[in-house]
Amino acid sequence: xxxxxxxxxxxxxxxxxxxxxxxxxxxxxxxxxxxxxxxxxxxxxxxxxxxxxxxxxxxxxxxxxxxxxxxxxxxxxxxxxxxxxxxxxxxxxxxxxxxxxxxxxxxxxxxxxxxxxxxxxxx
Length: 123
Description:
- By secondary structure, the protein is an all-beta fold.
- Helix content is 0%, strand content 51%.
- It contains no helices and 13 strands.
- It has strands at residues 4-7, 10-13, 18-24, 30-36, 43-48, 54-56, 64-69, 74-79, 88-95, 98-99, 104-105, 112-113, 117-122.
- Strands 2, 4, 5, 6, 9, 12 and 13 form a 7-stranded mixed β-sheet that branches.
- β5 (43-48) and β6 form a beta hairpin.
- It is elongated, with a radius of gyration of 14 Å.
């Protein structure tokens, strides 16, 4: 099992930016960012695939940009134009993938989770 560590959270005013980092102790090709506002359900924001492609949830398209640094086992989440509704605990998750008929693939389930980092946006 890999250790997952998030960092970069904090407090910012509406319209500001933050960059979150997620680092795993070993390489995990399947990674994702989630967030969970207080009292609400967890929401998937970003996922990575085996080939390095990154996919975004509709709520963050155009405002959030994710990038991978495979040499550092790190997935970044750059957040722009933050809004009060972005306030949440942000979690990173990772997995080694599932073995399919011919190769490994990411199936949207993650075994390794970080402790979360709080992002608070004040209006």
